[in-house]
Structure prediction request, 276 residues.
Amino acid sequence: MFAIGCHLSASKGFLAMGKEALSIGADTFQFFTRNPRGSRAKELDMDDIASFLAFAENRIRTPLAHAPYTLNPASADERIREFALLTLADDLKRLSHLPGSLYNLHPGSHVGQGTEPGIKQITEVLNHILWAENKTPLLLETMSGKGSEVGSRFEELRDIMNGVEYQEQVGICLDTCHVYAAGYDIVNELDGVLEEFDRIIGLEKLRAIHLNDSMHPMGSHKDRHAKIGEGTIGFSAFCRIVNHPALQNVPFYLETPQETVTGYAEEIKRLREVRK
Ligand code: FE
Ligand code: FE
Ligand code: ZN
Prediction:
């Protein structure tokens, strides 16, 4: 299977996102669960969800829900961790109404307390929000390592996951811009990077890929996305990524800086053309 889509605005609801995805040649999409900076979530419209699920059948695969990126479950400040915990728990509860979806979050920044305590705090938050019957996989996103971000090394993500009680519920979303900025050479050593991922985390844990080119060079620890083929990663590397045998069953999501969805439509078309 080759599932590819992009980030869409959730403001018009799920059915509208499903239709918009199809109209630009996508068969999946990503959306923010709530205002990425704010906290309040809209009341769930169950009629919209029911219409979406009927529409999505055989057309749309694994919508990827993205948590607000301002949450910080790795904070040294207990109130900030508590806020992240309540928001993540609420999102996961809401996502139980959207079967087949995935939930992606940034692990957090340790803001000076050190990587190890940060990892412990994240694990603790995850153990509070997951429950035995939860069906929505929770994905930790690979980060660029800007500031004090946790999760730019595969080892850190593994350590977070190892402390989680319901391990079968957690996975990874690999962001191509972030891993490249973190220092993993997916341009010249894609096989080696994926082998390292497999050795440290396990490729069966890789559930989603964010496809973004990078404005900054490898190892820069800067998180600035570029359009596919217009950054330091380059189009030929993306051809190898979407065709890599280890990634055949992983859905791809574009988060490139586009003004309108037309730009996404073109990127999706180009990537479908090179996909063998
Ligand atoms: Fe993200
Ligand atoms: Fe991303
Ligand atoms: Zn990013």
User: Anything to note?
Assistant: Residues 66, 69, 106, 141 surround fe (iii) ion (ligand 1) (CB under 6 Å). The radius of gyration is 18 Å. Residues 4-274 form a domain with the TIM Barrel fold (CATH 3.20.20.150). Strands lie at 4-7, 28-32, 64-66, 102-105, 138-141, 170-175, 206-211, 213-214, 225-226, 252-254.
